């Protein structure tokens, strides 16, 4: 119990760790709140609790949006250090990663403008800027999925080589599991990104609150698992996940 408490405190003391916890609680509240709200006709107390949880989730989401106002420089530093990915062995992985970094970098100013417009700090309509930020987020997620699929293909080729030692094969399998988790996480987030697109685009606007919460909770829990396992270091050092 003491060790678990110490691990949680250590996680909350880091900015990225705290963001992952807030994200998990945010989507978890939306999941539970959405489920309880569906029981409104049968139970008034469930309806009230569900609405409270949904409001709590919205406040946590707003909190994360404000905190991301300070993420531009850390993302820029990561993009600069990665450059054109000359250290990558595979050209496809390199250029997908570069495009991914560009999408991530452009995401932040678009979200900042949308937030400032909603806060009436600037006189522009926020709708198009929220749309731009959602499109960039979805693009980043899609590129991340493509990158993980390419990495998986390369790892499978390495795994088939007979001269690989037992330790090397075990490490390759761990890397493959990490990429599979990343794909699952990105797909869950991508489903929500499409939901927040304008009506008429695929399943935009059709997810109930509980399903949005379920997708987000799934992605958030995977992020916590990867962070604990040390396989999510890259994403943890670059940015906090949008929405």
Low-confidence stretches: 231-238
- Give the end-to-end Cα distance, rounded to a whole number of Å: 31 Å
Oligomer: single chain
Percent of residues in helices comes to: over 70%
Number of strands: 0
- Strand percentage, roughly? under 5%
Based on helices, strands and strand pairing, what is the structural class? mainly alpha
Average pLDDT: 90
How many structurally independent domains? 1
Following the backbone from N to C, one meets helices and strands in this order, namely: HHHHHHHHH
Tell me the number of helical segments per DSSP (H or I, 4 or more residues long). Answer: 9
Radius of gyration: 20 Å
Shape: globular
**Main sheet summary:** none
Pfam families: PEX11
Keywords: Membrane, Peroxisome, Transmembrane, Transmembrane helix
Organism: Maylandia zebra (zebra mbuna)
Subcellular location: Peroxisome membrane
Describe this structure as you would to a colleague:
The protein has one domain (2-238). Mean pLDDT is 90; it is low at 231-238. The chain has 9 helices and no strands. Helices cover 77% and strands 0% of the residues.
